[in-house]
Amino acid sequence: MSDPMSCPEFFQNPYPFYDELRSAAPVKQVTTGSGGRPSYLVTGYAEAKAAFTDPGLSKDTTRFFADRPSGRNLHPAVAHTMLATDPPEHTRLRRLVTKAFTTGAVTRLRPYIRHTADHLLDGLPKDGKADLVAGLAVPLPVTVICQLLGVPEADRAQVRTWSNDLFAAGQPQRIDEASHAVAGYMTDLIEAKRRTPDDSLLHHLIAVRDEGEKLSEDELVSLAVLLLVAGHETTTNFIGNAILALLQHPGLLDRVRTEPRELSSLLDELLRYDAPVGIATFRYSTQAITLGETEIPAGVPVLISPGAANRDPAHYPTPDRPDADRDARGHLAFGHGIHRCLGAPLALAEAEIALGGLLARFPGLRLAVTPEELRWRRTRLMRGLESLPVLTR
To answer: Which family, according to the similarity comment (predicted)?
Structure first.
């Protein structure tokens, strides 16, 4: 049986597939990957939330793949990030960067985010056609995370290219090459900052590494790569998906235009409606567990789908329609539990500033193509647009 999550129809609109699967069982065995590996896909909300905190599920990819031969050549800094660890390693690594992404830290970043967004919006045509992915959704979070880490402005376009290549579904060689390129770049940048210190987050991590035993050199490179890539990929998708949802639902768009202050409270519903993460990062069962009514044996991958869980009608009535009056704060777009997205406050701030500025400047904003003509990224992990052509007047 071929992988059902590799067909073009899935990337264009995965929700009918998720609905069909969930109606059969909210946790169901599926075949994934070119090797036809059996996995369990979690599409129900209650089951997904439980899976995120189940002690019988591990993220330790090193242990899972230790005895499994592979032809891949991923750089260790990409293959074995903080996302692929369990406590206590995960707890130690996450603690080192948590302060940089607190609500207070993000509040201090807001003037820079707003300045960057305004600059990007200035570059959009006031009466013409624009691509809001290339013109806003990509460069805003890339610029902000690069600024936070201390990545030179001249290198930021290349960073985005490498990051995009890391999610090139079905192109393992391209992914592997990008992993070595970005890890090599980050290794060189760390050495450069050792010679010329600054006040960036990366320099702070270098100081932690050089002043004690809390962080190894390999962990330093890996953590820096993770922050660089994860710090903008999901936010890019979040912004693009949210703009599209508003443009496709005029009533919702009119409400935000009439009451701009409602935008911040609407962001959770937009995340629920079209989550930027389709399938959460890798987990596997270390022992036999039960999710919902499904028994899962030890030693198999468990794929949690936030996108599917957020459309579960058992938890969210009329889930296929965004509702400005819905309380969606319990959505799973950022995950749940100890691995909940560290950068959630930053992503929310960037999306609020980007969307608010865009809608204020372009009252006639509308799609330049039909929804069927939109091109989506061909990766099951991420749910995001390749481009978002709009008319600005």
So the answer is: Belongs to the cytochrome P450 family.
